[in-house]
Write a structure and sequence with these properties.
The protein is mainly alpha-helical and about 650 residues long. A hairpin with a 6-residue loop joins strand 1 and strand 2. About 55% of the residues lie in helices and about 5% in strands. Helix 16 packs across helix 21.
């Protein structure tokens, strides 16, 4: 046995000197993983601890230490990958569980990519990130006040309504960002990404990204077919997005300052859809001015008031979240969770990276107890749902903590977020507030088990579903447009001269938004948010899985059979639901994800139907409103097809 020191304190990698250089038996492979397990966990822990220290105390010192630890962990993974490729070349012949672990380990590094190419790729990434972060513009009608960055502009877009001012900021930002972030440099970065993927045995980086969705035991799976499946899922969602888009367009046109700026069946100018205006993918900032019932409060509004009236604090929200999970028979948080987590922005002078909230498995090996959340929380419904989301991740971590390192993960990249999102739904019901928390939200609720009082949605219900839809449905369109563009770059079917035109073609086709003024052909408007971020298909799938899990668990609790009342389901206290949740979470990454999904929901395929069932009361209502107003749920040239179809 040979031990190799790789630069991390006390971290030694067990090299397989006794194994064949071409092939090894399954017994050899099992022994290798057994020896590797504590080393891999420890190396991961050092990287996690340095990252935690940085985000909870942002200084130049902690930043440098976090970057160094990240590089060390990448080097460690590269060494493991080299071991796999040199000594376990026959891993594809192993049994299912072993093969799944070795496939992951075989692509965690750069393969045989040259050191010069690795360095070039890293430098390009750093330069792109820096150029994007440093982009600034000048204040409207005040050229002496410059240096406004993306953080300032997000606040501006959430507060101002003047058409010309919004247009100025939108065009100025995109012009500056598209110039500052070099498209040629991005193209070169993507070139190196593809080199890395090809050294790992893939045709391009999009295929390497998406291989995580391969059920592993399906030899006929292909990334190309998976991409088509995502488009097909979107096509099922699209008619409902079009209804939401048409309603929002109608409400925006009711503003006299905007009416002449938007065609009745046209796309919406991007600077008016303020969530899409710069870096975000939501339309929720339009909720207050466009909600279907102006005088009714959704649970997001009445719940916030109830929490504050009852004197809730952020730690108390965390505690009632723990109680919710425990009522299902799931674990309470560990002592280390309470000692190490951050629930609020500290008042001790530290600078904290508050966005986004995040969950942390500190990688302390099997039977780990160190799980944390980092939330700069406030007492409102947004953070009520965020905290339950993060606590869902905690339960996931705790349920699979005794598995091997590779198996301590979601069944596919969409599962972890899907589970986290799931638990934001039952606690956002009047039933949960009044029957579980004992807080009055002004609703007539029957607290008898499984007794939902009425299948007729109230104005408050419609407003709640509308607010949630403004977050969910635009995100689907955002991801499909973004990833189709990026996949085409990876596949080398989209050239740099067509970057900008194709970007806006896709955004108009899928999202129904357009730039407020013609954009230059040689530009890089796509740079917003996608410079070097990982694939977003995982989040597209997680939003679908959220409702697939929810409907299934609500049915187990006897509350999920009627689409008209699915949004009222609260399965708090259902041990039967808890047993299903435990089985889902404990499986981790140990089995092909369709098997785990089938055990949880009865179906092996991802389905959008539960999502559509959940929002059915909203879209029934919006469809009636649009029909009465003579509005069509379509935009631009696609309205011709809609009209023809409905005439037939």
């Amino acid at each position: 046995m040979v031990l190799l020191h790789i630069g991390l304190p006390l971290v030694w990698l067990v090299l397989s000197a006794g194994y064949s250089c071409t092939a090894s038996s399954e017994d050899d492979a099992l022994e290798y993983l057994k020896n590797l397990e504590p080393q891999l966990s420890h190396a991961c822990n050092l990287e996690k601890q340095a990252a935690w220290n940085y985000v909870t105390n942002v200084t130049e010192e902690t930043k440098a230490l976090a970057a160094a630890a990240s590089l060390e962990f990448l080097n460690f993974q590269a060494t493991v990958q080299k071991e796999i490729l040199e000594n376990f070349s026959n891993w594809k012949l192993y049994s299912s569980s072993l093969k799944r672990q070795f496939q992951h380990l075989s692509i965690i590094g750069p393969g045989s990519m040259s050191k010069a190419d690795q360095d070039s790729m890293s430098l390009l990434k750093a330069k792109l990130d820096s150029d994007y972060a440093s982009t600034t513009i000048c204040e409207y009608k005040n050229p002496d006040n410059c240096g406004l960055g993306l953080g300032h502009l997000d606040k501006i877009f959430n507060t101002i309504t003047d058409y010309d001012e919004l247009e100025y900021y939108w065009i100025s930002w995109y012009n500056a960002m598209s110039t500052n972030v070099n498209a040629s440099m991005y193209s070169e970065y993507m070139y190196y990404q593809n080199i890395l993927a090809r050294h790992n045995g893939f045709s391009d980086m999009s295929e390497q990204w998406l291989t995580e969705f391969n059920p592993r035991d399906s030899p006929n799976w292909s990334a190309k077919e998976f991409k088509k499946e995502q488009i097909n899922l979107w096509k099922e969602i699209q008619p409902y997005y079009n209804i939401l888009h048409a309603y929002l367009r109608m409400k925006i046109r009711e503003n006299p300052n905007y009416k002449d700026k938007i065609e009745k069946t046209g796309s919406i100018p991007a600077h008016l859809v303020r969530g899409f205006g710069l870096s975000r993918s939501s339309m929720t900032q339009y909720y207050e001015t466009t909600k279907p019932f102006p005088d009714a409060q959704s649970i997001m509004e009445s719940g916030t008031k109830a929490l504050n009236n009852a004197g809730y604090t952020v730690p108390k929200i965390v505690k009632v979240s723990e109680d919710f999970f425990n009522s299902l028979g799931l674990s309470r948080m560990t002592d280390l969770f309470w000692e190490n987590s951050m629930f609020e922005d500290p008042k001790d002078g530290r600078v904290v990276n508050c966005v986004p909230p995040f969950e942390w498995d500190m990688c302390n090996g099997k039977d780990n107890k160190d799980f944390r959340i980092k939330v700069c929380g406030e007492v409102n419904m947004d953070y009520m749902t965020i905290i339950h989301h993060e606590m869902g991740h905690m339960e996931y971590f705790m349920e699979y903590t005794n598995e091997n390192y590779i198996h301590r993960d979601g069944a596919n990249p969409g599962f972890h977020e899907g589970v986290g999102n799931l638990f934001s739904l039952p606690i956002s019901t009047p039933r949960h507030f009044q029957c579980v928390l004992g807080l009055d939200v002004g609703r007539d609720v029957d607290c008898q088990p499984n007794d939902i009082k009425s299948n007729i949605p109230t104005p408050e219900d419609i407003n709640y579903l509308y607010e949630l839809a403004l977050d969910k449905f635009p995100f689907f369109t955002y991801v499909i447009a973004l990833e189709q563009w990026r996949f085409e770059v990876f596949e080398e079917t989209l050239t740099i001269n067509d970057y900008n035109a194709r970007w806006w073609d896709l955004k108009q086709k899928y999202q129904g938004i357009k730039p407020p003024a013609p954009r230059p052909d040689i530009g890089f408007d796509a740079a917003t948010r996608i410079i070097t971020t990982p694939n977003y298909i995982r989040y597209f799938n997680s939003y679908i899985l959220q409702f697939q899990f929810y409907e299934s668990f609500c049915q187990v609790a006897g509350q999920g059979d009627d689409p008209r009342t699915l949004h009222q389901c609260d399965f708090t206290g259902s041990v039967a639901v808890g047993d299903k949740v435990k089985e889902l979470l404990a499986a981790g990454f140990t089995k092909p994800w369709p098997q785990i999904l089938e055990r949880a929901t009865g179906k092996m395929d991802v389905s959008v139907q539960p999502l559509l069932n959940f929002f059915k009361p909203l879209f029934d209502h919006l469809s009636q409103v649009l029909e009465k107003a003579g509005e069509l749920p379509c935009f631009d040239e696609w309205c011709d097809g809609y009209i023809k179809k409905h005439r037939e």
